[in-house]
Design goal:
435 residues, mainly beta, 7-stranded antiparallel β-sheet
Length: 435
């Protein structure tokens, strides 16, 4: 009996062709994947080279996937990715100097930070982790100390100002910030001075400068080791090229994450609240970096501090520098963080905030006022003068001798010369009696 031949439909032909193409593609992909694993270029691919200022990237574009070989200063490595994955393009690294490792390391018996022209880095157990030899100076480099910006608001208050800046601690027992500024006639703090801060990896046989900055600030202070630290592993740094401040996060891998961009005229950290005080284009505000949100109103005057009272209400202190006659001072104001004014008395030249009250000096009458957070004046004391800035040869208007939960003891000076002995008073800040 005659059988009619089976007809091959167009659909069947298409399915067979598709299967053949998938098999050929799979074979080619597997073959190219093996070549990729051995760092070889792909077959049956369009090859091109993309040039950058710090190197180049090789690309082999094949059927649905791309092989890339990164040969740039800012990124090395290879990848095989689908065609829709865009090329990586991180910010280029600056042309950083190479560290010198070919030198003898003297035995530093006292474990000094600096000895015989070298910087020594120890872990918390006292083990030597690495050293650094000056690059830009012969022997004058140092472990970086916390710097300052144009406003230097941390040191404007004579009660909290640092006599000497704190040295920054090592990070992850691998990295350190090194001040290796060029020799120059100007001193740090002068506008003409150019500071050079290197982020240095000091692990033996991995010594490398990872980044360069124009300055760095401290955030927290480690009293046990008497050194400055960052907010976690976040650091306030000044961009070397733009001269603007930002915040970086230094990871244990050595990767540097930009947490706040380099666009601020001033960045300061408040350790008590965990907030940052930012200034940009002459506008100041308080910022919660953990939530990436502004938490205060804007201020046209510098914000010097932020704190909270026992009712968890937040306040910030602003101030405008003024000169009246021969008298120069900062005229302070206090605002609630929502912008409501709390203290607006004229010519307040000193404010000391505490959880249940604030102390302030009015320099028109040299009176020290104590006010609670309801706005009621609870106590006042007549001072002999109002100037709080002092040197080793002069007295301030008063010093805080010591304080406890419910009392504060002050040494009041009758004159600025050191020949004047202080008068000691204690104030009970709960009953507001003069003890």
């Amino acid at each position: 009996m005659y059988q009619k031949p089976v007809e091959i439909t167009k659909r069947k032909i298409i399915e067979v062709l598709a299967l053949v193409l998938v098999l050929l593609w799979s074979i080619l992909f597997i073959f190219n994947y093996v070549r990729y694993s051995n760092s070889k270029p792909l077959l049956l691919a369009i090859h091109k080279v993309i040039e950058y200022e710090d190197g180049y990237v090789n690309e082999d574009v094949s059927f649905g996937y791309i092989y890339r070989s990164y040969n740039r200063d800012c990124i090395k490595g290879e990848e095989l990715v689908p065609f829709w994955v865009s090329r990586k393009n991180p910010e280029g690294k600056p042309n950083l100097p190479k560290v010198d490792t070919d030198y003898e390391v003297p035995d530093n018996i006292r474990r000094q930070d600096k000895y015989m022209g070298l910087l020594y880095f120890y872990n918390r157990s006292g083990k030597l982790m690495g050293t650094y030899k000056c690059i830009n100076t012969v022997r004058d480099c140092n472990k970086a100390f916390g710097g300052k910006d144009y406003y230097d608001i941390v040191n404007k208050d004579p009660i909290t100002a640092l006599e000497e800046p704190h040295t920054l601690y090592t990070v992850h027992d691998k990295f350190a910030f090194v001040d290796d500024s060029m020799e120059q006639p100007a001193q740090y703090g002068d506008p003409a001075y150019e500071r050079i801060i290197y982020l240095y990896k000091f692990v033996e046989k991995e010594e490398e400068i990872l980044a360069r900055f124009a300055d760095i600030k401290e955030s927290n202070f480690d009293e046990d080791h008497n050194v400055a630290t960052g907010d976690g592993n976040k650091f306030i740094v000044k961009d070397f090229d733009s001269g603007k401040w930002g915040v970086i996060n230094l990871k244990e891998s050595g990767d540097i994450e930009q947490v706040l961009p380099y666009e601020y005229d001033s960045v300061n950290y408040d350790a008590d609240t965990g907030y940052y005080i930012l200034a940009k284009d002459n506008i100041w505000y308080v910022y919660n970096l953990a939530k990436n949100e502004k938490v205060s109103v804007d201020s046209m005057d510098p914000i010097y501090n932020v704190w909270r009272n026992t009712n968890m209400t937040y306040y910030f202190k602003t101030g405008r520098e003024r000169t009246i006659g021969n008298n120069s001072f900062i005229d302070y104001k206090i605002f609630r963080i929502d912008g409501r004014q709390f203290l607006s008395t004229d010519r307040v030249s000193q404010i000391i905030e505490r959880p249940t009250y604030v102390m302030y000096i009015t320099n028109t009458d040299n009176v020290l006022h104590f006010m609670d957070y309801s706005g009621e004046e609870k106590y006042k004391y007549q001072l002999y003068f109002s100037e709080m800035r002092h040197t080793k040869l002069t007295n301030p208007a008063f010093k805080i001798a010591y304080e406890f939960e419910y009392s504060i003891t002050l040494d009041i000076y009758e004159g600025r010369e050191l020949s004047y002995n202080p008068k000691r008073i204690s104030v009970n800040v709960r009953t507001w009696d003069n003890d």
